[in-house]
Design a protein that fits this description.
Order of helices and strands: EEHHEEHHHEEEEEE
Radius of gyration: 17 Å
Structural class: alpha+beta
Number of strands: 10
Number of helices: 5
Distance between the termini: 24 Å
Largest sheet: 6 strands, antiparallel
Number of domains: 1
CATH topology: endopeptidase fold (from Nostoc punctiforme)
Helix content: 10-25%
Strand content: 25-35%
Strand order of the largest sheet: 5-10-6-7-8-9
Length: 187
């Protein structure tokens, strides 16, 4: 589980946050990981910043995982949807998400924005992304490819036949595609 601890240094008259990212196979929801914290602190910029860092660190740990449709096993296989689900869960930002069955090419044959509608249950749209936010790209007929922003336009995503890699939205295969941004973090 991701641990978020507030440390106060009485001599320096300041506080600092320590974030310990989740380990493989250990999961905890954001509500559980933040349950012991003062409610006024939950929206504190330093907590959100620490969670954003935790998301990026966890995503980096998935780099090199092969692409496998609907899989979610670090080092063995994952697709772009399951990468988001696992990273945000392991970073302590979201509860476990079990998406309904989906075929690999659903976005080529349907106009329904299934991916974006699902994303809206866990994140809100934003105009410009910050580290740890989600970039959702249009592929086929819908917004159907998700990535984790590290520092826009840099991101981490699981791409067909390649696996989890660093990406750049200004380069192929993402350049020129319509993109929308979402954040799971409180405003």
């Amino acid at each position: 589980m991701t641990k978020i601890e507030m440390h106060t240094d009485p001599n320096a008259n300041r506080s600092s946050l320590v974030v310990t990212p989740a380990k493989a196979g250990i999961h905890r929801s954001a509500s559980a990981s933040l349950a012991g914290m003062d409610p006024g602190l939950r929206r504190d910029d330093s907590v959100i910043s620490a969670l954003r860092t935790s998301v990026v660190t966890e995503a980096e740990g998935w780099i090199g995982t092969p692409f496998h449709h609907a899989a979610r096993i670090k080092g063995a296989g994952v697709d772009c949807l399951m990468l988001l689900a696992e990273v945000y869960e392991r970073a302590g930002v979201a509860d476990h998400v079990e998406p309904p069955f989906y075929v690999p090419d659903w976005h080529l044959h349907r106009d329904a924005e299934r991916y974006m509608e699902g994303r809206l249950r866990y994140a809100r749209p934003v105009d410009a992304p910050d580290a740890g936010d989600i970039a959702l790209f249009r592929f086929g007929r819908t917004f159907s490819h998700g990535a984790i922003v590290t520092r826009w336009p840099r991101l981490i995503h699981a791409y067909w036949a390649i696996g989890v890699v660093w990406g750049d939205a200004t380069l192929y295969p993402l350049n020129g595609r319509t993109v929308r941004f979402f954040t799971p973090f409180a405003s």
